Amino acid sequence: MIISSTDACESNGLAVSSPSQGEPILDVRDLSVRLGSVRAVTNVSFRVSRGEFFGIVGESGSGKSITARSIIKLLPPSARVEGRITFEGTDILSASPDELRQLRGSGIGFVFQDAVAALDPVYTIGYQLVEACRAKMPGVSASQAHSRALSLLAEVGISDPERCLASYPHQLSGGMKQRVVIAAALIADPQLIIADEPTTALDVTVQKQVLELLQKIAAARGAAVILITHDLGVVAEVCDRTAVFYAGTVVEEADTFTLFKEARHPYTVALIESLPVLGVRKAFKAIPGSPPKVVEQLEQCPFAPRCDRALPECGARLPPETVSPDHRYRCINPYT
Amino acid sequence: MMSSPDIITLNNVRRTFRSGHTFSWRPRIVKAVDGISFSVRRGETFGIVGESGSGKSTTARMICGLERFDSGSIIVDGIDVGRLRRGDRLKFRKILQLVFQDPYAALNPHWKVGDLIAEGMRVHGIGDRRERRKRVLALLDQCGLPSDAANRYPFEFSGGQRQRICIARALAVEPRILVLDEPVSALDVSIQAQILILLQTLQRELGLTYVFISHNLAVVEQLCDRLIVMKSGRIVETGPTEEVIHYPSHEYTRTLVEATPIPEPSRRRRPAHV
């Protein structure tokens, strides 16, 4: 069945096409974030083009969520941030609170990981969507906001929007709540949607629907999406380009097809090999050791202690980035 | 595939829960498990697959004697789980042990790892202090943990190591069956394979029977000999793993297989952009 290649969509040429050459909507340059003595993010750079589906994949503690939150400057007050984040010409890190308020929601929509925590349990869905709508679009009347909320719920595939508006969060299923949270992120027509592990808490069948919904929305609105996940399977299914995070830094970034076919960094290769693939029975292949919990300094390759290709030099300094068109990685002894 | 006799047999087991308001006149009855029958063979890995609300965890808990059932029977290694008395329960625990999903919640943070692992042996009166100590060290080694782990506390360990501690603890009383309730789904991706390999090795060495509960079909496929697929309290499909996954006969199984992400973009089932 789906496991045979005949059923697989022949989309090889499709996804690789234009996005990387497209005009960047978001440009992150040398972003570093310190939380106290911890280096949460170190020298992270990437660009997201208009209409692109960009994946950020990493394990817990790899800095992917902190990176995402930096983009809307939603970090704890103790965070020390360096680098540059430019969204449609606006320098986010030096933006005023007013500019930021404009940006959040209107320019960039954020879908949080935990849909349960993102919705207030004591207000109806309608109240929360209408409130968000009127906050983002001054001058909109209550009834206009109401109909906007209705059309958004319809857009995210809720079959009975009226009833959903009158419901409290606890009356909805996990998938419905996630759809509502996505609808809320769409209120002010953002050009960039950041979805932080939007499907982690969901069943696979619901996950599939939510991912398809995000693809549909991105395509219909021409918006870019940054999808943050720990699941390489999810990345493989939907992302045009993918950055692999490890210990707070990007170890490899490439077009998704290239990444899976010609991964260079040993971590990426090991991660792909460690995943069980449905329909292919093979022995499990593990990565020894565990990812660093806390990074205080990044003066060597963070993966070196677990790497079977490590050279003595790997412990001496953080490998520089090797950049080729559409592919870059931080490794001095990469797979070729 | 083995042909040894069945070690676990469920016959038409039902479990309902009352839902809705505590004092309502007409409580809604939820059929969590709605008349299921299956048997697990000695030495095999048996998968129970389903999404949230399918009844897979209730089924697992009933097999372990942690959950009553309304009707039907569950026989585990000759013991009628429905008629367990207080004294029998202890005996039953020597046959069947559990490993839970969240290794962060499953270990008492105030206890040293050595005491956590030895607790079962102490309760069952296995060996004296010194012998238990020796066995703890052997178990740590068997589960890939450093021997100094015995004198440390759970917080000093990563998620994967904690799951190893949970497995060592379960094995301490030398059970024949391990019920594994989503044992890797709370772990980092790069750690999951380590734990699954450990489980496979232990099974080979100790001849254990596994009941493996999971929502991840890809993991189940690699690990399980046979499986059942559950939906809304019923078994919708059962059979050898390969057969069920490659030639699913039930619509729901097909949906599950199709929804499982495949980490190979070349096998993408739809274009990235419309």
Automatic annotation (TrEMBL), chain B:
<dbReference type="InterPro" id="IPR003439">
    <property type="entry name" value="ABC_transporter-like_ATP-bd"/>
</dbReference>
<comment type="similarity">
    <text>Belongs to the ABC transporter superfamily.</text>
</comment>
<feature type="domain" description="ABC transporter">
    <location>
        <begin position="8"/>
        <end position="257"/>
    </location>
</feature>
<keyword id="KW-0813">Transport</keyword>
<dbReference type="InterPro" id="IPR027417">
    <property type="entry name" value="P-loop_NTPase"/>
</dbReference>
<dbReference type="InterPro" id="IPR013563">
    <property type="entry name" value="Oligopep_ABC_C"/>
</dbReference>
<protein>
    <submittedName>
        <fullName>ATP-binding cassette domain-containing protein</fullName>
    </submittedName>
</protein>
<keyword id="KW-0547">Nucleotide-binding</keyword>
<dbReference type="InterPro" id="IPR003593">
    <property type="entry name" value="AAA+_ATPase"/>
</dbReference>
<dbReference type="InterPro" id="IPR017871">
    <property type="entry name" value="ABC_transporter-like_CS"/>
</dbReference>
<dbReference type="Pfam" id="PF00005">
    <property type="entry name" value="ABC_tran"/>
</dbReference>
<dbReference type="GO" id="GO:0005524">
    <property type="term" value="F:ATP binding"/>
</dbReference>
<keyword id="KW-0067">ATP-binding</keyword>
<dbReference type="InterPro" id="IPR050319">
    <property type="entry name" value="ABC_transp_ATP-bind"/>
</dbReference>
<dbReference type="Pfam" id="PF08352">
    <property type="entry name" value="oligo_HPY"/>
</dbReference>
